[in-house]
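Usage

Read records sequentially. Each one opens with the input sequence:
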Amino acid sequence: MAAAALAALPLAGCGESRELTTNTTGPPAGTPIPRAPGAAPRPLPSGTAVSITEREYRIEPARVHLRRPALIDLRVHNAGKRAHGLLLETSVGRLQTGTIPPGGTAEIRVRLRAGVYPWYSPVNGDRRRGMTGELVIAKPKR
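and closes with the structure output:
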């Protein structure tokens, strides 16, 4: 347990966090965990929604600009005829949706600080064919 706490220490205060990466195209897995009687579920904080559509061989919009750092919900829809995906490069690592089948959707939830974050489809050479873009987050004004 002490090793886990020490491993997490360098990331503390870096301004970014990986909260959730979900592929929403498949059926739900497992049985829901029962709640205690009378206990209401805590809602997840809502982030800034960014919708992205993928087609052969482009990402729309290719560039997204946000005014300030925030919790971001990247919602990716594959409107193409082939499988695609989305990989977002951040200072804490690469976050990706996994393969999204045609007509499918997936989501990446992440908190990012000001900066430029490249994204692309890592599936079947899509990146070489132009399925690239970037997320730009401006610095807050003081």
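Summary fields computed downstream for this record:
- The chain has one domain: 16-25+46-137.
- Strands lie at 17-23, 48-55, 58-60, 63-66, 70-78, 87-90, 93-96, 105-112, 115-120, 132-137.
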